Amino acid sequence: MSSQKVKIDRVFHALGDPTRRAIIEKLSQGPISVSRLATPLDMSLAAVVQHLQVLEECGLVRTEKLGRVRTCGIDPAGLSVAEKWIGERRSIWERRLDRLGDLLGESAEK
Fold first, then answer.
1. What is the pTM of this model?
2. Is the distance from CB of 27 to CB of 37 less than 8 angstroms?
3. What are the domain boundaries of the chain?
4. What is the chain's Cα-based Rg?
5. Can you tell me the distance from the alpha carbon of 78 to that of 82, in angstroms, rounded to the nearest whole number?
6. What's the rounded mean pLDDT across residues 40-69?
7. Three-state SS for 24?
8. Can you name the CATH fold of 3-109?
């Protein structure tokens, strides 16, 4: 299995969880401390940290510790993996639909 496929699989696995999607949504507003991120979530700080580890391992989130405060933010490179994969699929389907449209147009002219 190629490393690119493994990376894509990890990104979509991470995004498949509603809690992790909520974390990504919150982080899209800007970097935030882990404790502030955990406040509105109905789970322990340890559970939030586990979700962040999954997001960090697949490259969607980066964390930084300054003193006693761990801050996390979105890593745009991780999102670009998903964006590229989706874009490639979109391009394939757009070409197919264009060919179908051309074929249907030719049939209508005859």
1. 0.77
2. yes
3. 3-109
4. 20
5. 7
6. 93
7. helix
8. Arc Repressor Mutant, subunit A (1.10.10)
